[in-house]
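batch_manifest entry 22 of 60
target: Succinate-semialdehyde dehydrogenase [NADP(+)] 1
source organism: Microbacterium album
requested by: lab member K.T.
priority: normal
notes from requester: please return tokens only, no post-processing; we will run our own comparison against the previous entry in this batch. if the run fails, retry once and flag.
--- input ---
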Amino acid sequence: MAIATINPTTGELVQEFEPHDAAEVERRIAEADEAARALRRTTYAQRAQWMHAAADALEADIDEGARILTLEMGKPLAQSRAEVLKSAKGMRYYADNAERFLADEPLPDASAVGASQAFTRYQPLGVVLAVMPWNYPFWQVIRFAAPALMAGNTGLLKHASNVPQSAIYLDTLFEEGGFPTGSFRTLLIGSREVEAVIADRRVKAVTLTGSEPAGRAVAATAGREIKKAVLELGGSDPFIVMSSADLEAAATTAVKARTSNNGQSCIAGKRFLVHTDVYDEFSRLFAEKMAALRVGDPFDEGVDIGPLATRSGRDDLAELVDDAVARGARVLTGGKAPERPGWFYEPTVIDQLPDDARLVLEEAFGPVASLYRFADREEAARIANQTTFGLSSAVWTNDPEEEAWFIQALDAGAVFVNGMTVSYPELPFGGIKDSGFGRELAAVGIREFTNLKTVWKA
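--- output ---
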């Protein structure tokens, strides 16, 4: 795949970029390795000062950053601005909390092991490679980079090949704040070159957000090289509506959950499971609200849904819907690509899905929602847990006992009650099953790429 910006709104090539050759990749890895040795000798206070300065620079340049995001992957401009601000917030969060998260932790049973004192200390690993996707070109990177750098690591970024301008923009962001040269470096390389970078002895760990096949490949290489890996591989999240739920609020939030980022979010609600007693009313509300969304040029204010980021993504989504319809599913609204340039797909609601439809088990990465009717909570949990994914989930109920039951029953990395899943710097993020392993964000996220060192003192 060429490293190029292709405007998904028009399908036109904007700019193609020459990949880094072996010599340039070597130079950038060497820079990151040298910077890692320097950075681990700095204080949290110094790194926090640099991180705040970088966040200020990113926020001050919000218009340019948002323009790049919308140009390269097609999200509405207001959402691009929000992503820039969220990224700056995440940077400040780790600047303010890293020292507390990584403080020495006394071990209370020191005397039991013949020590006058025992504690654990978190120390940086060194150079960490991040293999990142195109759907949140800034935020996905920042939520790795901010904790990694604040812990004293340095970062290498292999970004998705269709967002090179985003990757290049981030290449110098941290140095603008004052971090040593090489603390964060973008590698303009293809996926075939990733294995060699992971295998490089100077690279100590790898994190990937992306597809399940990509995750399996990265995990295999990291395992062979005995290096730490964190994987976030997407999901097919259930959004469960019980009969006690506020249907108007649930339907309104369901639309946002399914269509934010043009529906291209790993943690989006994708499968909407509705109790039979309220199914007809909820499906009517949901379909009406989805049909009312405005599809168009993401640079136009007031547009709700822009194009999908790639032609292949749009075509894959259309195939899932067409397969379901061919097998007997019913389209309540949408269901096709509009006749216009670019890679658009209508906001779609589909129900009466047969078990053999691909849409039942595969992830729909776009504004397509599938509806399922259930009779009781046991059936809801069975449907929710039947996919191989386990990233997040949402439950709508006003019954405390039901709430407690679902929190326990759902196989997922998170459960959001009467809301939609959102990644916050303050909350751990990650999944189970084929959605990956390890966690990002919060305290656990910054600790993933550190050495937990045990200290025993006589």
